[in-house]
Amino acid sequence: MMISTKGRYALRVMMDLAQNPPEEYVALGGVAERQGISMKYLEAIVALLNKAGFLESRRGKAGGYRLVLSPAEYTVGEILKAAEGGLAPVNCRECSDGDCPRASQCATLPLWQRLDQLVENFLQSVTLQDMLDGTLPPV
Questions:
Q1: DSSP 107
Q2: CB-based contacts of 53, cutoff 8 Å, min separation 6
Q3: What gap in Å lies between CA 31 and CA 46, rounded to an integer?
Q4: Strand segments (E) across 1-131
Q5: How many of the other CB atoms lie within 10 Å of CB of 67?
Q6: What is the rounded CA–CA span in Å between residue 82 and residue 35?
């Protein structure tokens, strides 16, 4: 599995916003500068996070973005899924109906299912707050 720059940047953006007081709206220009992300790419990432319902925006002089929930209520897994669309380790794990047409003859499918579950469980167990505190849960 490879997390793209979109997923990595989405996590960095959420972390950046989480480091601000919850009532404060943060301008994207500041996020772009601190995180070294182009405004165009940042806007695309923020659109994905906004569509997922993670962010609240305000226009105007004191405008910007802020988290809708507290950092403890966001998991790394849901942030990465919002940005990436999915996190399956192999394409066959992303079958739309969850059923692989080769499942009955694929000797490797149990391995991919188990890996998928391990990754899912771990990423769902880590919150933004854990990342802010530098305390990852045990594997």
A1: T
A2: 68
A3: 11
A4: 55-58, 64-67
A5: 19
A6: 19
DSSP secondary structure letters along 65-121: EEESS-GGG-BHHHHHHHHHS---SSGGGG-TTS--TTGGG-TTHHHHHHHHHHHHH
- Hey, what's the torsion of the CAs at 83, 88, 89, 91, to 10 degrees? -110
**pLDDT (tens digit, 9 = 90+) per residue, 8-31?**
999 999 999 999 999 999 999 999
Query: Which amino acid, residue 61?
Result: K
For the segment 109-138, what is each residue's pLDDT rounded down to a tens digit? Answer: 888 889 989 999 999 999 999 999 999 888
Angle at Cα 124 formed by Cα 110 and Cα 47, nearest 5°?
A: 110
**Distance separating alpha carbons of residues 87 and 66, to the nearest angstrom:** 25
Which of 7, 12, 4 has its CA nearest to residue 82?
7
Task: Tell me the C-alpha distance between 64 and 43, whole Å.
Answer: 12
Helix (H) or strand (E) holding 132: helix 128-133
